[in-house]
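so my prof wants the structure for this chain in the tokens format not the other one, which i didnt know existed until like an hour ago. anyway here's the sequence
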Amino acid sequence: MDLLKTIGKTVQDQFRGSRRVLSFGEYLELVRESPRSQLRGAAQYLADMFEHFGWDDAPSPGRKDRRARLFDAPWADGQGRLAGHEEVQGAIHRSLRNFVRQGRVDRFLLLTGPNGSAKSTITEMMARGMESYSAQDEGALYRFNWIFPTEKLSRSDIGFGGSGGAGDTPGDLESFAHLDEIQVDARLPCEMGDHPLLLVPREARAEMLKELRDGCEGTVCDDLSHSAYLIEGDLCPKCKLVYEALLVSYEGDFMRLLRHVQVERFYASRRYRQATSRVEPQLAADAQTRQVTADRSLSALPTALQNVNLFELDGHLVQANRGVVDFSDLLKRPLEAYKYLLIAVEEGRVMLDRANIFFDLLFLGSSNESHLNALMESAEWTSFKARMELIKVPYLRDYLQEKQIYDAQVAGGQVGKHIAPHATAVAALWAVLSRVFKPRGERYDDKLKGLVQKITPLQKAELYARGKVPAWARGDDAKLLRGAVQELWQETSNEVVYEGRIGPSPREMKTLLLHAGQNSNYGCLSPNAVLDGLAGLVKETSVYAYLRMEPKDGYHDFAGFIDAARTWYMDRADREVSAASGLVAEESHHDLFARYLTHAIAQTRGEKVHNKVTGAHEEPDARLLAEVEKDLEMFGSAEDYRGSLISRIGAWSVDHSGEKPDYHEIFPAQLEQLRDAFFRRRGDRLRQLLNHVLLVLGDDKDGLDASEVEEARQVVERLQEAYGYCPHCAREAVVLLMRERYAE
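here's what i got, hopefully its the right format
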């Protein structure tokens, strides 16, 4: 019982602290305290929700994007987060801000893209964000109910008067909002969730809003703007009837009318369809009316309302008012089924059989490209386009972002096996390779034209994801390609068939990964299991239309992409196995490159280098410079090459003022070259060690002495601890490397 009392006290304190139930007068005080949060429409509310969670810089190669933390699901520790699509997030936020400036939502935001491109995830994240935001003080939402006291408290023949003893009659109460339930005969909610200020007559409301706005001070008021809904709106039909009945009964006494108003805080909820609702493709009406007095005892309502036909509203649009309604796969409906949206979006109202109802909500929807193209061919398209804002949601073209999707989808116990390093990355890379298009050289100037036409699908994928230029691009050519990433990214954005529209969806790739995880030929979900699954997938040309595309210049070569993904995997496995070999410390390549740069900078500037051992200042080490530049496959003159490296350090330092240069970030390709060159020179030693590793993994140590066994075991342990390999995938990686890279 003590525990229950403690819980009960906590719940009660939270209830009172959150100001769940207020009288109308108490609510006006809240409005005066927080005009910025209480005088906003749905568009402002949603825009503020974005700002509440904040933004992070999400720099991508050649692009400066911002990522809304809203889509990282911070309320759920990132569970269900959206991978990528920063451009879409920015487009939605810009549209919301435009609606705020206009004072009304006058366009339908339609997310368009191929099946499985995360359109539903985006709308779902916005709904989940509203749930979290509405639970915060700054995101509080309020609506109102009509409260009618019991006959004991109200004995008037019209049902609203007060003639009882002092202290227990409505005439002695300023508000019925806080009456106990046993003192209340009827409680009529507003199904529309109308804003409480709509109870104030329009002219007086306009004056009140102006006064509140003029008196608002501080940063919280900087962006205070009133929506047309608050300025011009009116009560829902049922509330209007109750309002008029009360006003007549009280002979125009507005203050007595307000006693019946109970202002209630409510919370956005997907489950209960409060301020957010998803409309699936269907033929059912999105809003309808139902008579209230037809299915409840007339005695439960005051006398003055028993002769009034009250109709309550229902439907997705009603439930979503004050928030967002999401029409999933909107264009799957017959055209006539959503024509009404033209008026609903433009005027913020819908005509029902008994009344017009007005909304304050964001109209959001999704559609795949085939249905959108069909609408574009119809005579109605012009009318729809004028009231729609199309936001493209393509498949991801950054394989590092695509990998995040697969990591989340196959995490936990879904596979039932260990997930090997690079397994999801191999799937993500193949998916992105299948989506990218060959650059169109005619769109670029002569110098850049020749460069972009040489780019292979794998090189384009690396350029998009890591900003890595092809090895053949040196000096000025490399700079041109790095500067052209944004242009390449946007090349087909205004075309019907744009890059990212065609290819495998994440849903299909998830199925492939799960099937690969069940492949009995492999002890874990390994890259080789994924590659085997892809080999089967590319044969299903009758199932997947994109597989029927003709290969051209290496693009759309889906079988060839498997080989590219295998090579990509081997490169990474090679570096990890080499690093785990212990033949050289991983940071030694960094230290060597750092020493090289120190001597190169001194040589370029005509300076001497301080010898930390002797304390003397010496000439730059020409032998060191020559050996490192040989491993780096230096091009052009030594002076120009060194100058280009120094320039890159300078450019990095401009964006990272006061920070010590991070060579891992600035020169990843050069560090890889030094590492690879080292292990090429020690190929025989590495081959011997890997043979020993295979014997140890196969529990066949005959012929190995104790030191060789221990050395091999240490390699396996490093692979497990540093890179996440298990014995199965470690053996697979070593066997593949021995066959493809270290065969005698």
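also thought this was worth mentioning. DSSP finds 31 helices and 17 strands in the chain.
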